[in-house]
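Before relying on records like the one below, remember that each one covers exactly one chain. Contacts with other chains, cofactors or solvent are not represented anywhere in the record.
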Amino acid sequence: MNVRFLHTADLHLGSQLKTQHRQVTETIDTLNSAIYTAVERLFETAIEEDVDFVVIAGDLYDEDSRSVKANMFLKNQFCRLAEQNIPAYVSYGNHDPVGSATDYVDLPDNVHEFDHEDPEEFHYPDEESLEARIWGQSYRDRHESRSMYRRFTPVDDRIPNIGVLHTGLNPDGRRYVPVARSDLESKDEIHYWALGHIHDSRIYENEQPVAYAGVPQGRQITESGLGGGYLVEIDAEGGYEIEFVPTSPVVWQTVEVDVGDEDISSVPDIERQIEQTLGDFSAPTDLFGGTNVTVRDSDWEVDGYVCRWVLTGNGPVHEMLSNDEETIHELTRRLRDGLTSRQPFIWTEAVRNATGPPIPPIDELRGDDRVIDEYLALFGELERETVREYFRDEVGMVWEPVNDHEDGRPDELPLTDQRLDQLLERAQERVLEELALRRTT
């Protein structure tokens, strides 16, 4: 027996994108409505695909934003499901705990809300003709120290069993349902774990998938790329198919732009260099490398991008960017004025300066300077994968990944293999800059 359902989480209705866009009339409606648009697309997908049911794993609302507008909007979406006889199974998380809830409208009967005192089991479609069991528990308060999962106890695994949790998967954390991924994977009778709380889409595949749907629409630069939800089909024998459905009308991206060319020396020059990067501008779709998850060709176009431009390279523009704070402000203003009329629009979230001073080509110094030759040889050793694995392990001991966005600063970056490679590359560049400059001055 198999079932097909939509898994989503972290809708955060009532919140807004964290951009300074209030004065931009061309894009203000799209930016203001982006979260509602993304959520509406999720429900539209569930209806068009005629799923058996919908699972929402917490944070339907954003903190104190459980407003009349948000309540009415969500009720209307659930009513759309009810017209197609599609039930929804809902848990509440740390941003909308049951203990502080204020509901302004009654939800339709097809919505089944998990209790906050004890784990609860719902039967699909009903107890008499049982095709799936859905286990879950809502947050009682903003911080939830109960593990919850231990009491998810289906009587058998002859039909698909789904566990719904809003958790950071941190067994030592006491605020967001402490549990380890291995704890969930040890529950053999649960065929799929539908998780919420982590805002990027990720999936762990073992005997049964442990999956974060992520946010349908990113709200800040740390929630970059496409948001969406999962279409999931599972059976009681361990078979499953998972398809990611992108829903974001607005995509956040950090874009590096090399402005190190000697011909780039002014703000208009930098603008032109940034504009050259826009020819093939698109959101990355390689989201689930190494997994069996597929990404659906979106039925909707991306309406716009919110970009953070990181200026890199070694050239004459470095001194201007480093010594005059007004330069970055002026460049940001000009980009905001000049790019919003594009289709899709480009809104500049910020400009960051990561440039360096001009240096001679390293090849000109190679062979004539023993220190530089030894340094390049050392970095050549780091290109060996065995050395890089050792380095990752050593760095990881002092810089643990920040897996939970609630525990990190808004601008904090967790350590990943990609991030470590970027740090090593930047460290190499900075040391070479210093060595080259000292030998040419």
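Residues 397-402 have pLDDT under 50 and may be disordered.
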